[in-house]
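Running this now, will post back.
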Amino acid sequence: MMTLNEMREFLDREFPQLQAAGRYTVEELRPLGARLRAAYHKSQIRPGGTISGPTMMTLADVSLYVAVIGSIGPMALAVTTNLNINFLRKPGPRDLIGECRLLKLGKRLAVGEVTILSDGEDEPVAHVTGTYSIPPR
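Update: finished.
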């Protein structure tokens, strides 16, 4: 399992666009899980005053990726094969939190779920399930 600092260094090196201006921050890395924060920016707001779906989907995808890579080690070529999202309620204009838990971590596939919350709120704004393909070692 990677440490939090190893993960941050890996993301800075392989995906510098994720952490540019503090966009996505890995707050916690644990066995088969991760917690990420997506920093709020007014450009994420869509008509109706809610944070856009693509913003939430990106947070979910990155959260799954971090949980998988954190568990198996730095394999930049792990890729999303499926992502399904249910939007549950309107998120307010604040940071979003992605709480990821891997349900299955196999040799070639990882399946997980992400609960997305508005910072400071207890009720989820979205629930996401996803699958990652793990390249052969």
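The longest strand covers residues 96-105. More later if anyone needs it.
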